[in-house]
Design goal:
There is one protein chain. By secondary structure, this protein is an alpha/beta fold. The protein has a single domain, classed as Response regulator (Rossmann fold), CATH 3.40.50.2300. The chain is 44% helix and 22% strand. The protein is built from six helices and five strands, in the order E-H-E-H-E-H-H-E-H-E-H. It has helices spanning 16-28, 41-51, 73-80, 85-90, 102-109, 124-138; strands spanning 6-12, 32-38, 61-64, 92-97, 114-119. It has a five-stranded parallel sheet, with helices on both faces. It is globular. The two termini are 19 Å apart.
Length: 139
Amino acid sequence: MNTPAVELVMLVDDNDTDNFISKRIIELTQFAENIVIRNSGKSALEYLEEEKDNDSNIPNLIFLDINMPIVDGFVFLYEFGKFPEHIKKKSKVVILSSSDNKRDIDRIVNNDYVIKFLTKPLAADALKDVQALLDSIKN
């Protein structure tokens, strides 16, 4: 990928190692121009609330973990649904999780804001799939 697929990606995961790996893969593949990292669903929601009137700081893509303390992926998506339409339209959500709980996976992939489920760790091939998906959504 020569031209970045997206301007801004947000990684939402309470695991610093997973965030580091995901960030490096995104950097090495030049998938995004900028990367914002939040270590909790609560922190990610606060970021979106603070930046809601600054469109250039709203992520095009949010990689979201399911299993996090306090505000997990499900609560994040519920709260995300309350944001203004322009944010929900701009920010696509990809679940990036190590969960293999079928009920969790079925429940989260049926969410209106989720475009894809990926298993950790993030890989370059998975980013190509996400890129193709984003291109198909734009067209």
